Structures are given as structure tokens and as C-alpha cells.
Amino acid sequence: MSSERDRWAELTGGQAGEEYALRFARLEEAGHDVHGEAAFCDALLEPGGRVLDAGCGTGRIAIRLAALGHRCTGVDLDRSMLAVARRTAPDLAWLHGDLARLDGLGLEPGFDLALAAGNVIPLLAPGTGAAVVRQLAAVLHVGGLLVTGMGLDAEHLPLPEPTVTLPEFDHWCAQAGLTLRQRFATWDGDPYIPDGGYAVSVHSRSTD
Q1: Secondary element (H or E) of residue 40
Q2: Which of 75, 105, 153, 172 could be 130's S-S partner, Cβ–Cβ 3.0 to 4.6 Å?
Q3: Which is it for the CA torsion 83, 84, 87, 91, positive or negative?
């Protein structure tokens, strides 16, 4: 486990699962599309792809991807979020663990795609970003994809200021053997504008 609590735990006290799930349920009931991340990832995958949802939360994305035919595993450190995921989709694999210690969870490597959506990267415990990226890269096969979505300013984060820049993140990826393939401003695929407030990035594992 990390020596410091992740920023998400500092914000929520690890008790946000039910409230988080209710928020998205209400959005869906109001007619909003809550499956943008899953649709984005599905377009990158071959049928029956293996997906690691890193920081899966209540399982919203992994459950949708599983319904689309993909083989999904979710990992999260927040037990309240995992409780919702397990209740909603008990047949999927939900693992409690620190993303900086993925190698201790016994995951079979060779994933087609690892996903860190929902500001997972900016909300990691301070000082663990590079380690998490290394761990995510390690579970991918060569050519496998790391897909991330993150806020880059206070408007797109539940924090008063950003915790990571894109150049810093790309450096972590390069150190882990990942190459940037695509970058967008939204999960709908809108073009990324330099100095934008949100980035969806697709990196691929280029080395063993």
C-alpha cells in the first residue's frame, strides 16, 4: 500500500460509493449518455478484448464493456465503490488493491487495454504516478493500449489545482515503454487543443 492516502480518499473518506452510483443513475434517468468512456474503448478493441479497469469505482465502465462482449477486471482501493460494483455485477472480477502495487494482485498479464478514467491519475497518492503507469504498462501485451482521461485544471478536477501536467504524464509513459498514439479533448473524440483543460490519451506499449 502507498505510504500516503490517495487524493480520492482524502476527498471522500472512502465512503462515496452509494452517492457516486446514485449520481450517475440520475444522469442516465435524465437522458444523459453515461457510457462515453466505454464506447471510446470499445472502438479501440477487437471483439472479446481483455480490459483492466484501473480505478474502476462502482464498475460503470467495466460493466458496460462486459455487456459489449469484453472480458473485464476491475481494481480499486475504495471498498465502498467496490461494494456497489460487486452488488451490481457479481459475476465480474472486482479486486481490492493499490494501483501502485498491481503486481501483488496476481493478475495474468497480456491485457489488450488498461483504462484509467474518471481522473484516476490526478487523484493518485502523491508521488505514485510514475509507479502506477509502470504497473499498468506491465500488464499490457506489446501493442496493448493504456487509455486515460484526466482534468488538467481546477475546472475539470475536484481539486483546487492540477496535480499532474501532460508533459509529466507523457514522461512517465515513455519511461514505462509507452508511446502516445492519440489525444483528444473529450471521450467523444473532439480534437485536443494545447493547454486544454481535459485530455483523453491513448498510449500503446511499444517494448517488452
Answers
A1: helix 36-44
A2: 172
A3: negative
Buried b (16+ CB within 10 A) or exposed e, 83-98: ebbbeebeebbbeebb
How far is the C-alpha of 202 from the C-alpha of 120, rounded, in Å? 15
Q: What is the DSSP letter of 183?
A: E
Q: Which residue has the cell 457516486?
A: 20
**Phi and psi for 121 in degrees, rounded to 5?**
-65, -50
Strand partners, 184: 191, 200
Residue-wise pLDDT tens digits, 84-142: 999 999 999 999 999 999 999 999 999 999 999 989 999 999 999 999 999 999 999 99
Checking DSSP bridges between strand 50-54 and strand 71-76, what pairing results, if any?
parallel
pTM (predicted TM-score): 0.90
Grid cell, residue 153, equals: 485544471
CA distance 107 to 52: 10
Instruction: Quote the DSSP letter at residue 11.
Output: H
